[in-house]
Amino acid sequence: MSKAEPNVVPLCDILLVLLIIFMVITPLVQKGIDVKLPETQADSSGGGQPTGLIVLTIKDGDAIEINNINYEMRGLLEELRRLYSTRQDKTIFIRAFAKLSFAKVMEVLDIARGAGVETLALIPEYIE
Predict the structure, then answer these.
(1) What pTM, to 2 d.p., does this model score?
(2) At 120, phi and psi to the nearest 5?
(3) CA distance 75 to 66
């Protein structure tokens, strides 16, 4: 009397093909954004803001601060063009008060891009 045994070879072939398909597709499905983390430098001069950085603070109304100097919104484009016309590093750090609308922040980001800023960095600190 002969025993009937299941043939598992086709099942193994199908599993290997599925494994290869998932291995090829998985890297293509992963989504994300590229993040450029700031580089740190050992500085023996103590804390504080490093020299050469431009920090733009958006306040209520039309008040804008660039490195703790007050400006108005209507003169922002000209001031940023003046600052970035001779700079090699076209990076700006932007922080905003928490109660400001997102549209106001986007308006400042657009003005900065129009002035020639290449890298926009947001400072994620909560300011009231």
Answers:
(1) 0.58
(2) -105, 125
(3) 12
